């Protein structure tokens, strides 16, 4: 069996959350290993990259709104830092988001949301039909009105994944292309991560020939970050009550493409049932369904139809775009739609999951806060309201992979 | 330069038409070469495999109807012969086709079609709403009525492609994976086919190392069959008036999949805007747009939406199916929607293209008749009305690939 170096921290999960934490921790001088079978190819890859705390505000989610706003405020500098560290663009586009109403019912719902946004002190502007079409001439002429959230932007989530991978590599993060089967625990302390059979180390700082089947091999580490998205509830070696109660929430999205010089729209456009996110190069992301279907990742005819219809109702020229890809992501849902961030279970375990629809948005603050927690042992104030222990007493989700 | 054996016939184009001809000719003892960059991956691959002369009858196409009916009658034995020759199934399913009306307008149009079908002496049965739903319980409850064409069947066009390729290989047909650039002509006689630069021979009876760039290489042959679908108008070396006036007619289709034991429907179902073709294994083909877009093969959001909507209006459970593939085919359209079959231009040239929407259906009669023509020099009576010369005086389509 190959010798495994001890890591200061092992991050289980190589989505934007795990990669962001690993990069920040490694940049601060730690020795970090990330374990993921297919880094960056989960929910991070399927996402649309909306950074929309204002447009997506929901009743009864005050603490989450504060975190989301902090994250949105952190994004410009974070984007610059990732680009500096990786030498790659992340496609951060500060264009704002326009929510529009197709009809009177939509407009009434939008008015309610607008008043709630005002009560929350958010920066929003109510627009008439004509004003909407002045901003976005491609809108359907029947659009009844809208709300502009000038501070809700976007990032190219796939470019972000690639940039974080490059930043991790440059910072010396070791990537293990395997599956974490269990936490290794001695007494009340984490001692490492046990890999599943068939995993194989790859990339990162690893060198030399790889063992083909590190069955049951353990990566020793006194600190483990559980950031495996909707699969985080399936890690072995933990008491049920220590597992984060995450569940997969299926989202289907469409990737479209048109000419770069004739953009479908110039900023994020959304209706009640759909959002349309234009990249600068002619690509357009249309999303997303919200489905409780367990770990199913099937692209369904009904969802594709509904997304296309909803997009066509807002922006008729969508019809002319090429449909280049249909994609499914499994969001890590949490009981209150807010993430679980902080220590949990045995000493040395940190949870960073449950980001639900806000994984891309919350990447900067999650990465900063968890890296700080790993370095200091102190929970940063920003994430204190989101401790994983707040669901104590609940039965954890039993559908996670790896649990009986 | 490698030595090329003389062929009794070279078939330009490896779709079902070209492969069918090659197989029949080789089975009759001829030495046959097929030239195609990607055999079977054009319109033959994109098709749905409907064998529907009755359902798809059109006003003013009497001669074509007779040919289509002859082809449908030939299908059962042809399917058995291909399966025998190849050792592979072709998925011929004699289930009939049910055309249905969503509303009163549809029903009036269907009634007109039904009366026309009766006048043509076709076997059709007018059904009430309830009778339609008894045949196909998955139909939308709002379906107003239908017409059953009990003799309109289907074949799995992709299985047919694979089987014809295997049958050709067994019959000794040589496959050259290259592009035919021009006909070689001396005086008034065909002498072979000139390959484009970069083509390379592969598969079939070929052996030994392949030349990497047979630039301008000629395959000598006194007989050439031009069966290159919508690209048939682009062959060099021919006078413009000898080129068949084919044009590409774009068709977008969807491949869906559901559980084999809960079929969406048990026979072909069609409305005015869509057809739904169920395979026996849970796959379902939904088609097709009819678009004059030149050689464009883009899958568009608007077409996918319209096909899904039309299918959902007929069979609501379509929503639950997996969308596995979007595909574009370029049908070889002809000025009168009927194929061009027979000698044309210099002696030794035979045209077999312009099958438009009936390529799969007409494969048996085309293969039989053209193979007979190659063997005897006589035009079989069945295809006599479809001589390529019937458009003499027309300007050929100028959009074909390879023409200036």
Could you explain the architecture of this structure?
The structure is a homodimer of 404-residue chains. The first copy, chain A, is an alpha+beta fold and 404 residues long. Helices cover 26% and strands 24% of the residues of chain A. Chain A has helices at 16-27, 43-46, 62-86, 104-119, 129-135, 157-170, 301-314, 363-376; strands at residues 9-12, 32-35, 50-51, 97-101, 125-128, 145-149, 153-154, 174-177, 180-186, 189-195, 200-201, 218-220, 224-226, 247-257, 268-270, 275-278, 283-287, 322-333, 340-343, 349-353. In chain A, strands 5-6-4-15-16-17-14-18 form an eight-stranded mixed β-sheet. Residues 199-214 and 396-404 of chain A have low confidence and may be disordered.
